[in-house]
Inverse folding.
């Protein structure tokens, strides 16, 4: 497969910038600022923006490979990049108004970083529920939202927030609003001294924002969510997790080879487990990349894949991707730990997989798997698979 110059650049940034920064990012729980700065310098925060607006027009499959590459060196940086690209995708695919077209050219020029505020106190992890309504004050629109987990809120330039359309609307009648941080008063209400993904810097905030009507993304949030936010999130998050798993297996493999060398060319007892974990990794890789390519082809097709994107099968299969990739990354890292033993258990060994394991356990929580299984299980009552 030919590698685009942009992907080659991201791989270089992963090796030369993200890798060296990863220890401090994790230890200090700080934003991977040098990685995001390097990506900005290459215009990669606007990678998905169409070339007509000055972006690279990079597809989701390639963005997935970029998340994989970053995830092999610094999972927090990979996740920040992935989350930002999900926000960009929502604006590119659903912001068909002059305001958003102007915003996208500004994004290309200024490489603005967009954070996501879908979580809200009182709704748990239900993205399709909002409590906070848009309030009217003459021409000004206002919202007060208690976001429970907001990654890189400090370092972002803009926020993309889910809100309730009006105070009379149902909790599921939502809109997506893009606000510049200069339009917001943000009070930090919790900390992010977390087990893993420490560099995502994800505390809770109470956000008071003022904005104009044209900052509301025109399409209904139900469509934005089903056709773009969920597919992009599940594909790019899974790609970042695939990066973590890939590096954990690479470390296990290097450890087994080192053991073989120390044995004078003998066969270490762990080779069978290395084979087993490599098999799991290949399964994960094939699944993640296949779904990314499938979605890429759909949205590039003549009708934009409208019918498929709204289908039950598409939703179920995307849920399967998120559920399996988030489980596999933790399983693969655990297997890598069993292979590397106490050497992998040490934080300061070249074969250490401790950060991988800690980061991997965030995967099942980013939109809780229990929640997804519960909703997906209901879909299975009517889902027809390929069984004869
Ligand atoms: C690293 C990281 C970064 C994040 N970044 C952001 C961000 O930038 N912006 C943002 O808005 N959010 C972000 N989130 C939040 C995230 O995506 C979820 O919204 C949030 O993690 C859900 O919080 P919760 O687990 O406390 O709540 P819940 O989903 O309510 O889960 C609480 C518990 O209840 C269980 N549970 C909940 N519902 C059900 C159900 N229906 N059936 C069975 N069990 C159920 C869950 O398994 C879990 O044990 C991030 C999360 C992580 C881990």
């Amino acid at each position: 497969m030919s590698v685009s110059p942009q992907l080659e650049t991201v791989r270089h940034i992963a090796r030369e910038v993200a890798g060296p920064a990863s220890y401090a990012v994790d230890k200090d729980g700080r934003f991977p600022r040098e990685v995001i700065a390097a990506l900005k310098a290459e215009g990669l925060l606007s990678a998905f923006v169409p070339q007509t607006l000055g972006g690279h027009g990079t597809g989701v499959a390639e963005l997935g490979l970029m998340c994989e590459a970053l995830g092999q060196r610094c999972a927090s940086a990979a996740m920040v990049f992935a989350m930002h690209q999900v926000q960009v995708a929502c604006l590119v695919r659903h912001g068909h108004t002059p305001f958003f077209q102007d915003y996208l050219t500004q994004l290309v020029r200024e490489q603005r970083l967009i954070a996501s505020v879908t979580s809200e106190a009182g709704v748990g992890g239900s993205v399709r529920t909002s409590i906070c309504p848009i309030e009217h004050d003459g021409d000004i629109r206002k919202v007060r939202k208690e976001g429970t987990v907001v990654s890189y809120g400090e370092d972002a330039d803009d926020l993309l927030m889910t809100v309730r359309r009006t105070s009379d609307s149902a909790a599921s009648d939502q809109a997506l609003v893009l606000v510049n941080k200069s339009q917001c008063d943000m009070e930090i209400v919790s900390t992010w001294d977390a087990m893993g993904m420490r560099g995502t810097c994800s505390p809770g905030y109470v956000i008071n924002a003022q904005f104009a009507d044209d900052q509301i993304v025109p399409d209904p949030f139900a469509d934005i969510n089903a056709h773009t936010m969920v597919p992009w999130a599940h594909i790019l998050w899974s790609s970042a997790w695939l990066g973590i798993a890939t590096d954990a297996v690479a470390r296990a493999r290097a450890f087994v080879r080192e053991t073989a060398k120390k044995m004078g060319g003998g066969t270490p007892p762990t080779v069978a487990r290395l084979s087993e974990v490599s098999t799991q990794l290949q399964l994960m890789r094939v699944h993640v990349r296949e779904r990314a390519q499938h979605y890429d082809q759909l949205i590039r097709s003549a009708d934009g894949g409208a019918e498929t994107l709204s289908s039950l099968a598409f939703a179920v299969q995307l849920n399967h991707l998120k559920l399996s990739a988030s489980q596999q990354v933790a399983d693969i890292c655990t297997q890598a730990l069993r292979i590397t033993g106490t050497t992998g258990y040490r934080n300061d060994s070249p074969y250490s997989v401790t950060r991988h394991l800690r980061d991997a356990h965030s995967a099942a929580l980013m939109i809780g798997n229990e929640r997804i299984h519960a909703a997906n299980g209901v879909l299975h009552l009517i889902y027809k698979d390929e069984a004869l």
